[in-house]
Q: What sequence folds into this?
């Protein structure tokens, strides 16, 4: 009887082990099937993301082309206009459109669509503004970025337009009766994750009793609107020239 009981116990243990191994094997197969399914889904998701990125790049490319076409049309219209005031308005329109077109061009060429390298963008923008703005004074534009700054398109477009407006105004008014001039652009990230954009020149500065809120300048009004668009604060004053400060948070 003892041998029979031991034999039954051994057989029971063996059966339990067999059942356990079968379940373990089935569990491993199920896990492998799940891993294969996850891998296939990830592959499909990656392919879908790549397709969407390619589509977004194509959209940015077409937007850039359309903006440049509009800019060219304004340039053609400018050639047909004799009124100097109208010509200046058309030139300003071209600069604003080109500032936006450069952003879409950079996004089209960039590997990452989420953030824009502000240094590369500003280099391209400054190069363009130096070409289109003419003055008897030799103007140097200095760019100072203490660290790499990446911003999304919702912030870069208003900032690009603000910088374009300020630099264009400097060329028009800041360096009258001067042989040379200097414009400095400084963008820094603060410890509280806010940003400070400072544009300064060594020109004649703002007129006495200048009031931003009562100014009839379209450029100043546009700067205030764009600053409000990014939830920032705008300030301008004289200090060995004109200074514009923009505080904003991404």
A:
């Amino acid at each position: 009887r003892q041998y029979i009981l031991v034999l039954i116990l051994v057989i029971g243990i063996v059966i339990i082990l067999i059942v356990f191994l079968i379940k373990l094997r089935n569990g491993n197969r199920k896990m492998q099937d799940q891993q294969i399914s996850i891998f296939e889904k990830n592959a499909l998701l990656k392919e879908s993301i790549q397709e969407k990125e390619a589509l977004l790049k194509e959209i940015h490319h077409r937007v850039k082309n359309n903006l440049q076409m509009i800019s060219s049309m304004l340039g053609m219209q400018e050639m047909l206009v004799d009124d100097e005031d109208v010509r200046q308005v058309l030139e300003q329109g071209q600069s604003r459109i080109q500032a936006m077109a450069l952003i879409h061009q950079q996004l089209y060429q960039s590997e990452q669509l989420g953030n824009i390298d502000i240094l590369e963008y500003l280099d391209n923008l400054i190069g363009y503004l130096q070409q289109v703005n003419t003055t008897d004074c030799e103007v140097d534009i200095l760019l100072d970025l203490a660290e790499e700054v990446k911003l999304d398109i919702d912030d870069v477009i208003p900032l690009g337009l603000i910088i374009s407006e300020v630099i264009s105004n400097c060329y028009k008014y800041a360096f009258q009766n001067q042989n040379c001039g200097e414009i400095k652009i400084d963008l820094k990230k603060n410890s509280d994750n806010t940003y400070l954009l400072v544009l300064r020149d060594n020109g004649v500065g703002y007129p006495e009793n200048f009031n931003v809120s009562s100014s009839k300048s379209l450029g100043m009004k546009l700067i205030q609107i764009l600053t409000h668009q990014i939830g920032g604060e705008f300030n301008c004053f004289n200090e060995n020239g004109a200074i514009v400060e923009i505080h904003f948070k991404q």
